[in-house]
Amino acid sequence: MSVIDKIKDAKGPMFTFELLPPLKGHSIEKTYAAIDRLVEFNPAYINFTSHRNETTYFERPDGLLEKRIVRLRPGTIALAAAVKYKYNITVVPHLVCGGFTREETENALIEMNFLGIDDVLVLRGDAQKGVKRFIPEKDGHAHAFELVEQITHMNNGKYLEEALENVTPTNFCIGVAGYPEKHFEAPNMEADIENLKIKVDAGASYIVTQMFFDNRKYFRFRDACIEAGITVPIVAGIKAISAINDIRFLPQSFHIDLPNDLVNAVRKCKTDKEAREVGVEWATMQSKELIKEGVPGVHYYTYGISDNVAKIVKASF
Fold first, then answer.
1. pTM for the whole thing?
2. What percent of the chain clears pLDDT 70, i.e. is strictly above it?
3. CATH (one of 3.30.70.600, 2.60.40.1470, 3.20.20.220, 3.30.1360.40) for 3-316
């Protein structure tokens, strides 16, 4: 059952979460351990992030620097398939524009189709590390809506090679990202919501939001989307503070604001363990309110740490 079908059939808000593929050279066991802590709460689906290639520099024996292109977390599709068949659960791999050509994207989608994975979350992705603006690959996509269009074309039986005959259409359910505090590159919220509507009109069936720590921002965003003619479900994405440094790291990395009450509570913590407890309490408060207001689902950004999410879900759902 696809994500949008699960949303439509759900009797209440769904619980879902996101995981990162292991770093290159690491095993899948930590991923399984993170999932094992949460499966008892019957997640509707699990998202798996995808990461573009990165430029790194290695010092050669002669002292000069050598540029290399690496992908630190490969294996998104394989990981999703392994989890799908081990746990009999719906999986949603991310597909990003950055670092991939249209043909590479089509091949990835074909692999997913062969593996019985019919859900995908589409993102443009970040710019290359150390580069100020996003630069697409040659013959790649510059915007997420273009990637949504490519998948929609495949769902209609249209592949990149137009000469193909007797093709089988795919059946992907497409999710896209929304930003309750605006994507940092958008000139204003109105323009950002216009861009979101373009993604939905291109074929997206639902939206998952970037993390937020003030529920009022989600509700304002949801209402603005409805006013703009966006009627697909909007799943609320939240993250629990897990370390004292999060109050500095998260705003810098994700261009979001943290409420003063939360910041002050974390600043009083002497250890990361204390900060994690504050994070659990705050995210539980958020979750309960969101569930009470009837959101389609609450999606947790775990970053591979799931014991705190287990506490939140147990207290909220």
1. 0.93
2. 95
3. 3.20.20.220
